UniProtKB/TrEMBL annotation:
Origin species: Malonomonas rubra DSM 5091
Pfam family, one: LVIVD
Database matches in InterPro entries: LVIVD, Quinoprotein_ADH-like_sf, WD40/YVTN_repeat-like_dom_sf
Protein name: Uncharacterized conserved protein
Length: 711
């Protein structure tokens, strides 16, 4: 009986959705991908006279409706050679012999046999899952675990590979990191500061010394007889260890903003704060000397170094990889999209294990990591908030320079808009309409430029007190102002703009316009539909998802084409709505996809959906009730901004500027030999480089990463 109830419930849900106008596909998310399609091998067969490459692909599940796409291999997905599941966030990993200890949020501490690094096996030893293990430190056969508010737990490794002789040392706050030198244990105890334990005298389970500070202590690292303590906004404090092993503060390495992590390799210290990675020389350990720095990272969390490379775990970018050349950091970083947040990495027999939240552990072959591959980059000094391509120029709003612009085809010379001087930190949005260019700032007047000649914009108007995400419709200016709703302005006379109406009970992130209809995207509130009627805003309807589908996520962008509204709906992916009758909108489909949908562009029968934490999805919308995922291109650190310019796709890449790549292309020459074999002819592309394939049918898609290269 218990097995029948869930089945009956599913049938009832399907019937209910059918009555609401949904097709059965609405219940299916992207989870079907990979269940039927498989790839076993890809073999080059021949190179034709026109430069095209013939491949034989063997696997399974190749049906008559199979389609193949190719895209630029930007972010090293081919370097991921395996994975295994771990629930929750992985905080740290430590290898000893053939045993790997993994500290995670859900499972606590688990052990794996990694004698075959591509096929790790979970061992039966299970330690308390009621304890959070945040950090693992080892001294020979002794282990030290930072366990948050439960203090520091110590244990010894038995001959059978299990842990025994457990002890718990108090931390008086949250123990987050440890370091061991000789008989001394140094504990980063967050708000309690730094604790020092003598491991030879633990009878009373009390620290030998305690060092307090205003900021919480995040991390401790030791080099020779010096200890480096990370205090966030207070930077890195440098201590000398005296004869008893007690720290004596001798210097401070100040923070520009907030130091998140450090690592020490030989006589070099690497420091990570916000988007900055800096390298210091420790030849004089008491006076670290800056050697090099770079700014490529968006939300960095943790720093590692293995085999001459520095690895940066970044929430938005995935894994950043920086080579050291002639003792210095490379000016550019490579990236590997992980599809989630990361806090832990360890080297296992030449392979890199990286923990990824909610996904497990990815196994990476460092030998397969290639430089980041793009056709062109429009550089920015700070984080890209918005951009527009206009008249052969790229206009970028970033967090440092305000509005800057540069030629799309000329030398990479960046110029700043003089009118943004003094307001660079608060410029937030730009838009264009015909030959006009609009700049919205939080702490400066709203500006209108004549863009007839994009190289020399001419300021023609300023409006005081206007700010928000702008949209122009004829003589109307609409401003999405976030938590304060949105506003309607008449700007037919630049000398005296008039505020006509406003709606202040919604959280408006963006507005799409069709004639006199407004489609207002809002956080958690979905999409509201309004009409401009005699200079007033009239509410018509709210797009609602029927039970039991998930409620709205974060509706960050919407685009209307004809009678159809397309919504980038955060974690819920793409939503397609029939708005022929704007008073009764009808959701045709809600397609859940990997990542967090944040921006989209509609061209013909395709939607290009930008997805934070994942990349760029290409979706076939020739059947609006049954959209089909065609291609997914992994990209690091994308968030907002996408535009076509000729045959290149320009994407906002946060601290990496604006990236230009070729559009994903469908391969037409696909011969289905059997359900287990395809013969594919990949045409020679305009832009040389590495290309990946994505093979799919109505059941799902399979990635074949970095499989072909064109010189």
């Amino acid at each position: 009986m218990s097995k029948i109830v869930p089945f009956v419930l599913v049938i009832l849900i399907v019937v209910y959705l059918s009555l609401c106008g949904f097709s059965a596909v609405d219940l299916s998310a992207y989870g079907l991908a990979g269940q039927e399609l498989t790839i076993r091998s890809v073999t080059p067969v021949a190179t034709n006279a026109d430069g095209s490459l013939v491949l034989d692909v063997e696997g399974g599940g190749f049906t008559d409706d199979v389609r193949v796409f190719s895209h630029f291999d930007v972010n090293n997905r081919a370097a991921i050679v395996g994975s295994f599941p771990i629930d929750g966030m992985v905080f740290d990993m430590e290898k000893t012999g053939d045993i790997l200890f993994v500290a995670s949020l859900v499972d606590g501490l688990r052990a794996f046999d990694v004698s075959d690094p591509l096929k790790p096996v979970m061992l039966p030893n299970k330690y308390s899952s009621n304890t959070i293990y945040l950090d693992i430190e080892r001294r020979g056969q002794e282990f030290f675990f930072s366990c948050g508010g439960q203090g520091v737990r110590t244990a010894k490794l038995s001959n059978r590979g299990s842990l025994k002789d457990w002890k718990t040392l108090p931390s008086f706050s949250t123990a987050v990191d440890t370091a061991v030198v000789g008989s001394k244990l140094y504990v980063a105890a967050s708000k309690a500061g730094m604790l020092v334990y003598d491991l030879d005298q633990l009878e009373n389970y009390q620290p030998l010394a305690r060092y307090e500070a205003e900021q919480s202590l995040r991390q401790v690292e030791v080099y020779e007889r010096y200890l480096y303590a990370v205090y966030g906004r207070d930077g890195v404090w440098v201590y000398r260890l005296d004869e008893q092993g007690l720290p004596v503060k001798i210097a401070t390495l100040p923070a520009k903003r907030y130091v998140r992590s450090i690592t020490i390799v030989e006589d070099k210290l690497y420091l990570l704060e916000n988007n900055r990675l800096a390298k210091f020389d420790l030849k004089r350990p008491e006076e670290p000397a800056l050697i090099a720095e770079q700014n490529h990272f968006s939300a960095p969390q943790r720093l590692y170094s293995f085999g001459g490379r520095v690895y940066v775990a970044d929430n938005h970018s995935g894994l950043g990889i920086v080579n050291m050349v002639d003792g210095k950091l490379e000016e550019t970083a490579s990236f590997l999209n992980l599809g989630g947040d990361s806090r832990a990495a360890v080297m296992v027999d030449g392979l890199l294990y990286v923990g990824v939240a909610k996904k497990g552990i990815n196994i990476i072959d460092p030998q397969k990591i290639k430089p980041r591959q793009v056709v062109k980059t429009l550089e920015s000094t700070g984080l890209v908030r918005d951009f527009r391509l206009l008249g052969g120029y790229g206009f970028i709003v970033d967090s440092v320079d305000g509005v800057s612009y540069q030629s799309l085809d000329g030398p990479p010379k960046r110029m700043r808009l003089p009118e943004s001087e003094g307001h660079v930190y608060k410029t937030s949005f730009i838009t264009s309409s015909q030959n006009l260019f609009f700049v919205s700032s939080h702490n400066a007047p709203f500006k209108v430029f004549d863009a007839s000649d994009a190289a020399t914009l001419e300021l023609i108007a300023e409006f005081e007190g206007l700010r928000g995400n702008p949209v122009i419709q004829d003589d109307y200016l609409l401003l999405a102002t976030g938590a304060t709703g949105f506003e309607l302005w008449d700007i037919s006379d630049y000398a005296s703009p008039k505020r006509l109406d406003s709606i202040d009970d919604v959280l408006a992130t963006q507005i799409a316009v069709k004639n006199d209809l407004l489609f207002v995207a809002g956080e958690r509130e979905g999409v509201g539909i309004y009409r401009i009627l005699e200079g007033r805003l009239k509410f018509l309807s709210q797009v609602q998802l029927p039970f039991p589908l998930s409620p709205f996520s974060i509706s960050l962008k919407c685009v209307v084409r004809g009678n159809t509204l397309f919504v980038a709906n955060g974690d819920a992916g793409l939503m397609i709505v029939d708005v022929k009758n704007p008073q009764k909108p009808k959701v045709l489909n809600s397609l859940r996809l990997p990542g967090q949908a944040s921006d989209l562009m509609v061209e013909g029968d395709r939607v290009y959906l930008l997805s934070r934490y994942y990349g760029l999805h290409t979706i076939d919308i020739s059947n609006l009730r049954n959209p089909r995922l065609l291609d997914s291109l992994h990209l690091s650190d994308v968030w907002r901004g996408m535009q076509r310019w000729e045959d290149l796709f320009y994407l906002g890449n946060r601290f990496m500027g604006v990236t230009a790549i070729p559009f994903p292309e469908e391969i037409k020459s696909v011969h289905r030999v059997s359900s287990k074999k395809l013969r594919i002819t990949v045409p020679k592309p305009k832009y040389p480089g590495r290309y990946s394939l994505q093979i799919g049918n109505t059941k799902g898609t399979v990635d074949v990463e970095g499989v072909v290269s064109f010189p």
